[in-house]
Write a structure and sequence with these properties.
This protein is α/β, with parallel strands linked by helices. The chain has helices at about 15-35, 50-65, 85-95, 115-125, 150-160, 165-170, 170-175, 200-210, 220-230, 255-270, and strands at about 1-10, 40-45, 75, 100-105, 110, 130-135, 140-145, 185-190, 195-200, 235-245. Strand 2 (about 40-45), helix 2 (about 50-65) and strand 3 (about 75) form a beta-alpha-beta unit. It is globular, with a radius of gyration of 18 Å.
Length: about 280
Amino acid sequence: MKSLTVSIVSYLPDRVRLRETLQSLHRAVALAKEVGALGEASCFLVDNGPDRDSYGTLMGLIEEVRRCPQAIPVEVVTGQGNIGFGKGHNIAIERSRADVHLVLNPDVLMAEDSLVAGLRFLQDHSDVGLLTPLATYPDGSAQYLCKRYPSVLDLALRGFAPVAVRMLFDTRLAEYEMRNETASHVVFDVPIVSGCFMLCRLEALRTVGGFCERFFLYFEDFDLSLRLRRVTRSAFVPKMRIVHHGGGASRKGWAHIRMFVGSAITFFQLHGWRWW
């Protein structure tokens, strides 16, 4: 049986969605323990909120969730301010003493058997150290978490182009998002996966130094995926299923658009520019 830590980084999260995320995590951990796929488990909730009010809100929510049977222990990490997504997760990665670590968004709901599927996959494939799940949006439509190495054009089309323009490039975007490959079968050696749900061997995370803290928000998962590929294999495992409420940067306002563009530039500077 493996031990597991989970890290969730939050900044003024939606209270209802975070409660649902924690409840789905509790159910998944309970089932994994019940069937013998998991031993110990704990969660770090890293509060990047701006003040003590955000901490108080989180603690109230944690107390609610702790009333659930077999609730996973949750430690709230606070006081560091808004240090960014990757740096927040790195706090938990550094503190973890587990075999496996799950990077989880506060707006992700996992199927009850997702952890069982992922932990058993890791047990059966010792050369794999990074797993990504099958994801849908809340309306049930497919969400593509796997990516090939992007070009500037791919990112511009996917993030900012009007629907009519994206439709003209749908074949190109389908190739970039690996839509055909990641429909229903396991796919090994996926180049890039989403940071909303990354089930990793802790040893591999430690080997590459966790998330690169040059990224405040956006593209830290792209960067980590590529660096992890140097030390381990990745896999898309469709038996791990999640619902992800996340949205694109263009729908979150100009501040997010600026962060997206800045992080994209950092990513290409580190890994190489590809324009088309």
